[in-house]
Amino acid sequence: MFDNLSLKLDKAFQNLKGQGRITEINVATTIKEIRKALIDADVNYKVAKEVTDEIKEKALGEDVLTAISPGQLLIKITNDELTALMGGKSEDIVIEGNPSIILIAGLQGSGKTTFSGKLASYLKKQGRSVLLTACDIYRPAAIDQLKVLGEQVGVDVYAEPENKDAVKIASAAIEYAKKNNHRVVIVDTAGRLAVDEEMMNEIARLKDALKPAETLFVVDSMTGQDAVNTAKAFNDRLNFNGVVLTKLDGDTRGGAALSIRRVVDKPIKFVSTGEKMEAIDRFYPDRMASRILG
Ligand code: GDP
């Protein structure tokens, strides 16, 4: 993950090798290379510029006679800036209300259904009683997929295959949860291949009706700049609480992880790193920055 970006950043820092101190002149090349590395990794241009301007300003403002070398100093500053860019601290999922409702939104193929199963398993391991709800009224296969995942992780699945009203299905699921002492209801929704009005209306209707404690936007990190644009479109309409980045195990260049927080101002809460139900992790900006810098 992020191998190319890590290599390019490492190369950028090499420019400062053997330099006794940071100057306007010797830092300029490094900053330019960091910016290029970020843009090559699909980081939004404006974000890459802002971040590298901040790194440069901090580097020039540091006392040059410290014990650490200019290269090490720049790595430290870059690490701090990337951590801040990704939100600084880790933010946990909000569980609130009885039942607590978690609405899962995103495009088709982003990994919503897989993530719903993973989240159910994750919350079950915390000792919570969870109900999965299938609200993809367009793809019967999505209902079956969720049932299979529910069985796999030992979580009850609520579905009404004949019902084409997502709000009614979800409302019935909440009643079912109350009767059966499920404390968390995860609502998996329909997605389209691209942002469209009908999908947005439906998910917005679900959010208005269910008043979820969490609305999580799931996005495929491999889609780079598109991931950021889709996040913006969903956030403008839904005002979601958090982001889930999927397929971080793939050949992603990292741009989505690095840009989304700054562009939509919502925390990345989870990452998904594979097809298995265990491949779910909370997102820690500092750990991700350290991994990128190698
Ligand atoms: P949905 O249409 O948004 O519900 O997407 P799915 O959950 O059906 O996922 C689409 C495809 O991506 C499936 O083949 C999943 O197995 C796969 N997938 C989901 N999450 C991940 C992940 O984190 N890593 C990898 N490699 N594949 C994933």
TrEMBL record:
GO BP, sorted A to Z: SRP-dependent cotranslational protein targeting to membrane
Cell compartments where the protein resides: Cytoplasm
Reaction catalysed by this enzyme: GTP + H2O = GDP + phosphate + H(+)
UniProt superkingdom: Bacteria
Sites where the protein binds GTP: 106-113, 188-192, 246-249
Cellular component GO terms, alphabetical: signal recognition particle
Chief site of localization: cytoplasm
EC number(s) on file: 3.6.5.4
GO MF, any single term: GTP binding
Residue intervals of the SRP54-type proteins GTP-binding domain: 267-280
Record keywords, A-Z: Cytoplasm, GTP-binding, Hydrolase, Nucleotide-binding, Ribonucleoprotein, RNA-binding, Signal recognition particle
Domain comment in the entry: Composed of three domains: the N-terminal N domain, which is responsible for interactions with the ribosome, the central G domain, which binds GTP, and the C-terminal M domain, which binds the RNA and the signal sequence of the RNC.
Family: Belongs to the GTP-binding SRP family. SRP54 subfamily.
Assembly and binders: Part of the signal recognition particle protein translocation system, which is composed of SRP and FtsY.
Function of the molecule: Involved in targeting and insertion of nascent membrane proteins into the cytoplasmic membrane. Binds to the hydrophobic signal sequence of the ribosome-nascent chain (RNC) as it emerges from the ribosomes. The SRP-RNC complex is then targeted to the cytoplasmic membrane where it interacts with the SRP receptor FtsY.
Protein name: Signal recognition particle protein
Native source species: Pseudochryseolinea flava
Included range, full protein: 1 to 294 of 443
